[in-house]
Amino acid sequence: MDIAEKTRLLAEMLEVDASEVHADTELESFSTWDSMAALSLIALLEEHFGRSDIDGTQIRHMKKVDDIFKVMEK
Predict the structure, then answer these.
(1) What do you get for the CA distance between the two ends of the chain, in Å?
(2) pLDDT per residue of the chain (74 residues) written in tens, 0 to 9
(3) C-alpha dist (Å) from residue 50 to 15, 19, 35, 44
(4) pLDDT at position 61, please?
(5) Is residue 18 a contact partner of residue 11, using CB atoms and an 8 Å limit?
C-alpha cells in the first residue's frame, strides 16, 4: 500500500481531508484525535495491515502521523 492510500485511510478515520494529514503533523492537532480515534486506529491497523499486536499503550506513545505510518510499514 502506498503512502497516498495510507494517508487516505488515516484521514477517513480521523474525519479530516487527506490534505491535512502529513507525516510531521502532531496527532493532538486533530480535534478528532481522542480515545475513540485510538480504538479506531487499532481496528484499522488490524484490518488493513494485520497488526493485531497494537494496543492502547502503544497508541498513547504515538505523537505524530509518521509514528502511525511506521507501524503500517512493519
Answers:
(1) 12
(2) 899 999 999 999 999 999 999 999 999 999 999 999 999 999 999 999 999 999 999 999 999 999 999 999 98
(3) 22, 26, 21, 9
(4) 95
(5) yes
Contacts of residue 23, defined as CB under 8 A and 6 or more positions apart, other chains included, come to 64, 65, 66, 69
Q: d(Cα 38, Cα 57) in Å, to the nearest integer?
A: 10
Counting every residue written for the chain, the total comes to 74
DSSP for 43-61, please give it: HHHHHHH--TT--HHHHHT
Distance from C-alpha of 31 to C-alpha of 45, rounded to nearest angstrom: 21
Long-range contacts of range 13-17, CB-CB < 8 Å, 24 or more positions apart? 13/37, 13/40, 13/41, 13/44
